[in-house]
Amino acid sequence: MTRGLLIVFSGPSGVGKGTVRKEIFDTPSHSFEYSVSATTRAKREGEVDGVDYHFISREEFEKMIENGEMLEYAEYVGNYYGTPLKYVNETLDKGKDVFLEIEVKGALQVKEKAPDGVFIFLTPPDLAELRKRITGRGTDSPEVIEQRMQTAREEIEMMSLYDYAVVNDEVHHAAERVKNIIKSEHFRVNRVIGKYKEMLEEFSV
Ligand SMILES: Nc1ncnc2c1ncn2[C@@H]1O[C@H](COP(=O)(O)OP(=O)(O)OP(=O)(O)O)[C@@H](O)[C@H]1O
Ligand SMILES: Nc1nc2c(ncn2[C@@H]2O[C@H](COP(=O)(O)O)[C@@H](O)[C@H]2O)c(=O)[nH]1
User: Which domain of life, per UniProt (predicted)?
Assistant: First the structure.
């Protein structure tokens, strides 16, 4: 069976990754499985354990790192965030596509380990709009907003390491662009060729 496609959706905090991802999953062009990250940050109002994140302690997170159970992880504004490896591997092995929504340091770790993934960077129309979105969300203190803005500047400089950049000017348009990228990635020759190899082996005499 052809392995699923690993989709890494990344970009600065507050750019709208979660909002665009929700639109993609609500209006799918085909099925993806969302990888729920682990984090040590406190749960926000309305967030559900196991759905938005696996909320775990620092000790539990560090044990997972030690045991090699994270595909990638990063410390971001004082908290750990990471992708549990087991779910990703098992799902890809079933031939299903896996969608990761992660920050830039983590995405670059994934690129080292799985360069055949699709790396998509979601950008804001400009930095003033990014600040407006982070502030408008109302989830962060002024100090944390400054830290997120500083990190965003550094992250935008890393955009060239990605395969695609998508501007999140309007949610529906950004989601359509991402879906189109994923659709066309399925037709890359090095993915399609796997199926033909299997077929040729089956019919070889
Ligand atoms: N295209 C858009 N136009 C205007 N506002 C937007 C747009 N996309 C997202 N937003 C708003 O920006 C804010 C941040 O969005 P969201 O929480 O999805 O960002 P994020 O990148 O997932 O953040 P984080 O990485 O910190 O979780 C939300 O209030 C959201 O409604
Ligand atoms: N490297 C990783 N980054 C992740 C992961 N899950 C989420 N994130 C990113 O962290 C920041 C902050 O998130 P918030 O929920 O506190 O606003 C944001 O950029 C997320 O995309 C992960 O597993 N690994």
Answer: Bacteria
- ∠ CA 165-156-146, nearest 5°, is 135
136 is in an annotated binding site: no
Indicate whether 104 belongs to any domain. yes
In a domain, 191, yes or no: yes
Residue 121 lies inside a defined structural domain of this protein: yes
Nearest CA to ligand 1 atom 23: 14
Full strand arrangement of the beta sheet holding 164-167:
32-34, 97-102, 6-10, 118-123, 164-167
Residue 169 to residue 130: CA distance in whole angstroms:
11
The CATH number linked to 141 is: 3.40.50.300
State pTM to two decimals.
0.93
136 lines ligand 1 (CB under 6 A): yes
Mean pLDDT of 103-116: 95
Complex confidence, ipTM: 0.97
**Ligand 2 touching residue 101 (CB < 6 A):** yes
Split into its structural domains, the chain has a count of 1
Asked if residue 46 belongs to a domain, the reply is: no
Confidence bin at 205 (pLDDT 50/70/90):
low
Q: Residue 182's domain spans which residues?
A: 6-35+97-204
Closest ligand to C-alpha of residue 171 is 1
